[in-house]
User: Fold Universal stress protein from Spirosoma liriopis.
Amino acid sequence: MKTVFFLTDCSVDSALFVRRWLTDQNEAVIRLTIVHPYDIEAGDALTKETHRVAKQQAVTRLARWLDMIPASTSVELKPETLLASPELAAKIHQHLRAYDYILVDEPAGVLMA
Assistant:
């Protein structure tokens, strides 16, 4: 089983990128961890309520994004939201888990920084 990490901003373009990649991987069984990092609104203090609202918005965005990914018996999707910058979210996941592949649909410097 291939383990794959993908960091998404929940854009349509990123969903199309993942769909194309999954189409090319039709012979393999894949565990795809999809992480959507989120933040609170600028100027808001980090409180229990602001965190709850931001997390709910992120969960809703990620659920809509996942609807654009076709279901497959050979792909196990593991969606997650994380209160962090994209760079920090990528670092956290790379330190905590081992992945066979990291899908990148961003400029090269984002994950290398």
In short: Confidence is low (pLDDT under 50) at residues 108-113. The longest helix spans residues 48-66. The chain has one domain: 2-104.
